[in-house]
């Protein structure tokens, strides 16, 4: 029979409902029901074993990722990318240890790829108790570092794409140290996700070395990408380049002085704040960032929308709302930094 996600599957729907009840403890059963149907539909749609294995392993990895990170949902986390080949006596290794240690002392947890080099430096500075490691099975260069070897927050992935989801989804900020192809791949993906609104706004800090690794990259971006129109001037709001550890930490902390988080509700962008803005401050933001709003719409202060009731711990936060122009995620980062000045 042809299965449907709507409840029109007759006896199958009854069996799924019975299964959910029998299992017990199922949260959000409507969503879980769709997941069961998706698995069954996949089994009907393809007889190619490799495709089904990929779907199965993907869900298993993402389920375990959620399990590991869930107890720390309220703790801010910073993902650190960088070369696995950086040695413990090198400048950038020591700088990364200092950076992650400073963040851990201020209540942050650190997420790394769990390998050597910059990844080990990040875990070393934060310490095992304040660290996560999203490791990847590779034939060379990637085994768990000594800090995270038997840590319950060590996750070893088969698929790069699941690992990348964890790096970005679970983080409140990203710091990228110099590295090779893997580091650049991870950094460019974060750029793309923030620029296109496929992840929530978050600070992206490029921590430079004395040779200007990121300065040279920045020059390329200005002289090639910007000049040719491949990016917009507002995209430079997506990131900060710095050689200074204290500045890197400050960029991350200042991003959350007043800004808390965002959510879209019925096409409306809801910006949740830690403290309420005055009418004059809201008007100032509206006048300074007109491009963010769709024509003939306003930026308004508001309370939580009814649809946000599934996040009860956030319901009391003050909010701003607007009909957002999705062409301007770079400018949205600048907007958030501005509201943090009030």
UniProtKB/TrEMBL annotation:
Chemical reaction(s) catalysed: AMP + H2O = D-ribose 5-phosphate + adenine
GO terms for MF: AMP nucleosidase activity
Domain of life: Bacteria
One family name in Pfam for this protein: Lysine_decarbox
Biological process annotations from GO: cytokinin biosynthetic process
EC number: 3.2.2.4
Segments passing through the bilayer: none
Any one cellular-component term (Gene Ontology): cytosol
InterPro entries listed in its UniProt record: LOG, LOG_fam, LOG_family_nucleotidases
Enzyme kind, highest EC tier: hydrolase
Coiled coil: none
Protein name per UniProt: AMP nucleosidase
Organism name: Geomesophilobacter sediminis
């Amino acid at each position: 029979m042809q299965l449907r996600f709507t409840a029109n599957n007759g006896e199958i729907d009854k069996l799924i409902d019975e299964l959910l009840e029998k299992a017990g403890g199922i949260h959000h059963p409507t969503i879980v029901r769709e997941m069961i149907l998706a698995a069954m539909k996949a089994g009907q749609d393809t007889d190619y074993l490799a495709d089904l294995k990929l779907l199965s392993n993907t869900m298993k990895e993402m389920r375990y990722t959620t399990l590991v990170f869930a107890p720390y949902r309220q703790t801010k986390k910073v993902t650190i990318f960088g070369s696995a080949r950086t040695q413990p006596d090198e400048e950038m290794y020591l700088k990364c240890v200092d950076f992650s240690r400073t963040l851990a002392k201020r209540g942050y947890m650190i997420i790394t790829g769990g390998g050597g080099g910059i990844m080990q430096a990040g875990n070393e500075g934060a310490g095992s108790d304040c660290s996560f490691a999203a490791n990847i099975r590779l034939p060379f260069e990637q085994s768990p570092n000594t800090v995270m070897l038997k840590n319950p927050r060590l996750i070893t992935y088969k698929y790069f794409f699941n690992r990348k989801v964890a790096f970005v989804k679970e983080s409140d900020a990203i710091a990228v140290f110099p590295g090779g192809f893997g580091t650049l791949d991870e950094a460019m993906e974060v750029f793309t996700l923030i620029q296109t609104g496929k992840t929530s706004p978050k600070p992206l800090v490029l921590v430079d070395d004395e040779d200007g690794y990121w300065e040279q990259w920045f020059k390329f971006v200005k002289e090639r990408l910007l000049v040719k129109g491949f990016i917009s001037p507002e995209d430079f709001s997506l990131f900060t380049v710095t050689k200074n550890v204290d500045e890197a930490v400050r960029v991350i902390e200042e991003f959350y002085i007043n800004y808390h988080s965002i959510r879209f509700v019925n096409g409306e962008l809801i910006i949740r704040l830690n403290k309420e803005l005055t009418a004059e401050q809201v008007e100032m933001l509206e006048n300074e960032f007109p491009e963010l709003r769709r024509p003939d719409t306003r930026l308004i202060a508001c309370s939580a929308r009814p649809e946000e009731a599934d996040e009860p711990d956030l319901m009391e936060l003050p909010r701003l709302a607007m009909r957002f122009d999705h062409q301007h995620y770079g400018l949205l980062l600048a907007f958030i930094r501005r509201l943090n000045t009030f």
